[in-house]
Amino acid sequence: MPLDQTARDLLAAVHASPRAVAAHDKTAWVALFAENAAVHDPYGSHAHIGTEAIGRFYNVFIGPNAITFDVDRDLVGGHSVVRDLRIAITMSTGATVTVPMHLRYDLAETEDGWRIIRLAAHWELAAMIARLLRVGPSGVLAGTKLGPQLVGELGVGGAMGMMRALRGVGGGGKRVTRRLFEAAAAGDASGVQALLAADAVVESPTGAPIAVAEFVDQARNMEWGKLIAAGRTVSASVRIGASHGVAFVEFAARQPRVTGVTVFLDGATPSGA
Q1: Residue 6: helix, strand or coil by DSSP?
Q2: pLDDT at residue 1 in the model
Q3: pLDDT at res. 110
Q4: By C-alpha distance, which of 99, 93, 100, 118 is closest to 108?
Q5: How many CA atoms lie within 13 Å of 256's alpha carbon, on the beta-carbon side?
Q6: Are residues 61 and 187 both part of a single domain?
Q7: Distances (CA, A) of 242 to 161, 239, 247, 258, 268
Q8: pTM for the complete prediction?
Q9: pLDDT of residue 267 exceeding 80
Q10: What CATH code is carried by the domain that includes residue 215?
Q11: Disulfide-capable partner of 165 in 1, 119, 125, 134 (CB 3.0 to 4.6 Å)?
């Protein structure tokens, strides 16, 4: 179905981000965010809150690098946009790494138009570091340079906050997520329920809480791939019926119990650039 005006406006606001990144226009990029916006990049690390902190984040992770976006699809749900993509980062040393990613932008309408209030970048820090080191000397040099940049812009606390992304649900969360999807695809409502916390909320599509039985009926024969564990969340590229999308599976703080499943589906939403 065709996009309504709000969806088109949300996509336009989000698509302005890679344009500003490609142009190395810090002012334009930071202006896309609301005053007290939060950037979680990677998700699970310490958040950068407010335009000043977001500007420092830009100085470390965007400004020195050349970044290109390879987008498979964009998904709109409520006032959020999810991008299923890969990002190629070429660092100042010449090292290039490609990072599989799911980006979630939550937006709010302001007197200046739609602004990002929360950006959650779901990618795996440990896997990215491993890829960077495999590049060779230019990758090792890039990693060596990043440490002082982190401390210089974000302070010791900010640098340590970045390392929090190395903790999270990891491989165990991915295994539980696969079991959840396998049960849903097989029509096993009791198998899905066994993995959910008592107060878990399932939204499929996002913004529409549904019962487990309805989710299982909807997700029968679903397919999935590109599982990413970031913080206490596993995201996955999914196909449910004729629709493609991204599912976010959230876990409790200290146990492998699923507290939420949120699915963004494309319907007829075209991929953006």
Answers
A1: helix
A2: 57
A3: 94
A4: 118
A5: 15
A6: no
A7: 40, 7, 15, 26, 10
A8: 0.93
A9: no
A10: 3.10.450.50
A11: 125
Confirm if 120 and 43 have CB atoms less than 8 A apart.
Answer: yes
Domain that holds residue 142: 5-165
Tokens of 120: 């959650």
Q: Are 87 and 69 in contact (CB under 8 A)?
A: yes
The answer on pLDDT for 272 being more than 80 is: no
> How many other CB atoms are found less than 10 A from the CB of residue 243?
18
Instruction: Provide the H-helix boundaries in the chain.
Output: 5-22, 26-30, 51-61, 125-134, 137-163, 170-185, 189-195, 212-219
Residue type, 184: A
Residue 249 lies in a domain: yes
Omega of the bond prior to 270 within 30 degrees of 0, cis? no
C-beta of residue 219 within 8 angstroms of C-beta of residue 228: no
Q: Which helix (H) or strand (E) holds 83?
A: strand 80-90
At 147, the pLDDT band (50, 70, 90 cuts) reads confident
Q: 125 with 248, same domain? A: no
Distance from C-alpha of 251 to C-alpha of 264, rounded to nearest angstrom: 18
Structure tokens at 165: 């992304």
Distance in angstroms (rounded) separating the CA atoms of residues 5 and 22? 26
